[in-house]
Amino acid sequence: MSTRAGTVIVGAAESERIGTVPDLSALQLHADAARRAIADAGLTMADVDGIAAAGQSPIAVAHYLGITPTYVDGTMVGGCSYLLHVRHAAAAIAAGLADVVLITHGESGRSRVGAGPRWGDPSSPQGQFEAPYGTLGPPTMFPLGVLRFMKETGLTHEQLASVAVAQRRWSSQVPRAKFRELITVDDVFASPMIAYPMHLLECCPQTDGGGALVLTSAERARAMPGPKPPVYVLGTGEAAETPLVSMMEDFTSSKAFRRSSARAFAEAGIGTGDVDHLMIYDAFAHLPIYGLEDLGFVGRGEAGAFIEEGHTSPGGRLPLNTNGGGLSYTHTGMYGMFLLLESVRQVRGEAPAQVPDVEVSLAQGVGGMFMAAGTVILGTQAAAG
Amino acid sequence: MVRDTAQKAAPTPTPDTEPYWEGTRRGELRLQRCASCSNVFFYPRSACPRCGSSEVAWFTATGHGRLHTYVISHRAAPGFEDEVPYAIAVVELEEGPRLLTNIVGVSNTPEALELDMDLEVDFEPRGDQAVPVFRPASVPR
């Protein structure tokens, strides 16, 4: 069964505030974003019969909002969970399991209010085979393959730094972005070394924030139009590779990126040349490089030069991470919701740094540290055919 | 000199991994080989991840490998305060599998740590357990 273009996003919103929000708990951020997304859709909570959430239990979110859902998705595979929620919701809506699905994100990643404990169990695979070696969260783990990538493909430190530089060109146009000052490669090199080869400016900040989406069938959206044009779900994919970044099959390529994106392209019936706007989850500067290559937008070893030459920057032929990305916009911990929200804004034509004439937008998420991946291709009604 | 590593994170063995940790406590690096498809794999599991056979047998690896990739952390995890900056590295064993580890007996700098350099296993305490770490090979392979 294909879910192609049978499902639309009719509501999309971020929490009122993002960045540093010490007066709201993680659950409150879910709820704030949820209410705003429902309002954006022109609906009420009573219309919602399906819920999906990660970080907080979907049951907790539903009960907090006064919903008794009859479709529940608690898929929790890290920062791309929300992309998987979209995929599952599209299938559920197409199968008649749900009419209106609310997907929520909220994380007190900076202020840690109601956020729960961060790290794990010494008997888990990570606890036995990674933590004893002095790992200290994602900065010391996620970039593990970068030196191998450099050796095998010729990627340079300057090219890696240019990812952060390019994204500031976008965030400088985005009022809600955490970091908006333009930077140079030298600024990146002058920032503190966090875990060689990654400098501070090649690592995302930790922020607070929430986001939510409302999905329904294209048929219902046609019968009961909301205030905003519906954004069509053209294709989706998901994949999981390994719970341990140290066990990834190839340190220069994400198998989950390749599998997930191939599914999404096939379902949408399009190729890379049809994509007008691209979001690639960038907790760290190497991720857009892996993503561009693993999704097939450029050839092996070409992504660094492609970004360095400005092709992903404002005015370039492949606008990438137009909110400034996790590096500059916001990164709550599980940033994937913000990929989707920027894709929706670009397809609707309401983004702060709007790209002209976006018919098709692709969002590529990562979960954990190359643990899992989700891909969502969105488009206008015209793109949906 | 014996370094006090009591505060470093220590692994807690599980039934499927206990033979591995029993080996490291004795100064042996043990791997599993599938009797059905000959796949050698890490981390320890109760069945072969390639073919699914539960006919897997432990053996002692040579302890030789090469430096596959790494980061150098400039922030100290608990117990690593005296070592920062230190490498968190992936070693590819000559039997094929890769594992995360630390590199000892050599300066942990980009200049000294060359990818694909020859390494050999050593062991360091972590709580009641011992973990494999790697040092430059005394005799290059």
Question: Can you walk through the features of this model?
Answer:
The complex is a heterodimer of chains A (385) and B (141). Chain A contains 14 helices and 11 strands. Chain A has helices at residues 26-40, 58-65, 81-94, 125-129, 146-153, 157-171, 185-190, 218-223, 255-268, 286-294, 303-308, 325-328, 336-348, 381-384; strands at residues 7-14, 50-53, 71-73, 100-108, 193-196, 198-199, 208-217, 231-240, 277-280, 360-367, 372-379. Chain A has a single domain, classed as 3-Layer(aba) Sandwich (Peroxisomal Thiolase, Chain A, domain 1), CATH 3.40.47. Chain A is of the alpha/beta class. Chain A is globular, with a radius of gyration of 19 Å. The model of chain A has no long low-confidence stretch (mean pLDDT 96). In chain A, the strands form 2 sheets. Chain A has a 9-stranded mixed beta sheet, sandwiched between helices. Chain A has a two-stranded antiparallel ribbon with strand order 5-6. In chain A, 33% of the residues lie in helices and 18% in strands. In chain B, strands 6-5-4-7-8 form a 5-stranded antiparallel beta sheet, with helices on one face. A 3-stranded antiparallel beta sheet of chain B has the order 2-1-3, with helices on one face. Chain B contains 1 helix and 8 strands. Chain B is mainly beta and 141 residues long. The model of chain B is unreliable at 1-6 (pLDDT under 50). In chain B, 6% of the residues lie in helices and 36% in strands. Chain B folds into 2 domains: 14-60, no CATH class; 62-141, OB fold (Dihydrolipoamide Acetyltransferase, E2P) (Beta Barrel). The chains are: A alpha/beta (385), B mainly beta (141). Chain A binds chain B through residues 121-123, 125, 127-136, 139-141, 143-148, 151, 192-198, 244, 246-247, 251, and chain B through 8-14, 17, 21, 42-43, 68-77, 79-80, 83, 85-86, 88-90, 98-102, 110, 115, 126, 129, 131.
